[in-house]
Amino acid sequence: MCGAPEQGGGLAGVDLTTQTVIQGQVWHDGSPVAGAYVRLLDATDEFTAEVVTSPEGHFRFFAAPGDWTLRSLSPVGRAERSIAADVGLNETTLAIA
């Protein structure tokens, strides 16, 4: 069983002055993709974490500040995006072509 928290929802109780949060949605053809796997890879492309998107396509990671790659995998396709995350909330979208 995965220990990842439920995706989506608010950030109540999270101190965004000390935490680095990377979150967003996975989309395909104008609709969110539920059940997609989103992987977090570090600056050397090493696997760090993975979560499954919520029914609304949301994902969230708590990470260290730095350069990260997000990679989504789903039956409808794949998407990838690099992000330079700072302390605070870092939002992005993964669009499957």
From TrEMBL:
Source species, domain of life: Bacteria
Pfam families given in the database record: DUF1416
Example of a GO biological process term: carbohydrate metabolic process
InterPro entries according to UniProt: DUF1416, Ig-like_fold
Protein name per UniProt: DUF1416 domain-containing protein
